[in-house]
Amino acid sequence: MSETGKVVKEHQFDDLFTLRSALLVNTLTGKVDPQTNASSIINGSFEEAEFQHPHWLQFDIDRETGHKIIYCNDEENLAALRKINLTTREVSTVFTKGQAGFHQVKSSVFDGQTKDTLFFVDDNGKGNWNDRHAMPNVFYALRSEGFRKVYNYTYGQCSYSAVSMGDGTMFYNTWQNSEVFKAKQVWDAGAQMWDGQGLFHVKANSSDHVFMCKHPDDLYVYMTGFNGVYKCVYDKVNKVLVSAVVHVGDIGGGSGYNDAPGTSARFNRPRQGVFVKNKEYVTQGKEDVYDFYLCDHNNNCIRKVTPDGEVSTFAGRGSVDITGKVWGWIDGEAREQAQFREPCGICYDEEEEIFYVADRENKRIRTISIE
Fold first, then answer.
1. Cα(70)–Cα(201) distance, rounded to whole angstroms?
2. Alpha-carbon span 292 to 276, nearest angstrom
3. Which of helix, strand or coil describes residue 255?
4. Residue 369 CB contacts under 8 Å (≥ 6 apart), including other chains
5. At a CB cut-off of 8 Å and minimum separation 6, what does 101 contact?
6. To the nearest whole number, what is the mean pLDDT of the chain?
7. Are 138 and 123 in contact (CB under 8 A)?
């Protein structure tokens, strides 16, 4: 073909070939010192940027510019909130932990109605129920202020995650006794605090790092913790979560690695998850049309859970050497080659059909997509 686009000569190869697509893992941004494997909070282009330990991700679209954004909790205790601009391919810092006044933020979530408020859930160090009014456990920031100013929202025990439903109802959970609360935002004059309504314990008489994920249709809230995924029904009439039952994973909370249905599956420190619509379920007319993808932290991979409770490994644990090591930093085919090292956070761009993963110990943001 010429420079003007005109066909000069045609040729047909003797051996025909078929172009096949593959599910691939790639590195989007983040780097480390090759000698020390150290990194810091460094802003700049995707080629220049560095992260300490990317931990939790929230996908967003800027209302004014239309740019696609990922907000990243950098470090498990949120040393800084980073802004990853997918359109301009730049990383910046929104605020640091010291500026915001947090203790140890464990997760963040947008409000379920407008996505104009970003909530931060804090392990404030207060595990004693009698002291729950002494420290805020949920903070918030506003889109109108560029999410740069942080305000107190509720006071309570040390907390790990929250969800905001489509009707605005919020729930949060505490580490102590893995209890789930409804954030009532009602001032208790006697106790001199904003009170929350205790609903149930994820696992009786047990404490763990439990993380909550809202179903897009508000049918359920999934909770990852105790080496399993727990499923809670959302009662839209009474605006409460109904108990928690093991959807997949060991009922006793035992760790392991096994792709299997229901309680035969095994996880090892499951963390953030994201719901993704399955077009086949839509065609089949199923009520629940979303699969759940989650970071399996200590198993160094991304797992997939169907609505019926089938568990499979989606990406990671490839390129296993003779020592059996399944973790590392390797891009390539999702199951045969790619490796992660303690992935913690995940989000999804539905339009582009791309997963973004906070690869904690590799100090990088990775992508998973069909190419």
1. 32
2. 6
3. coil
4. 23, 24, 26, 352, 353, 354, 355
5. 150
6. 90
7. no
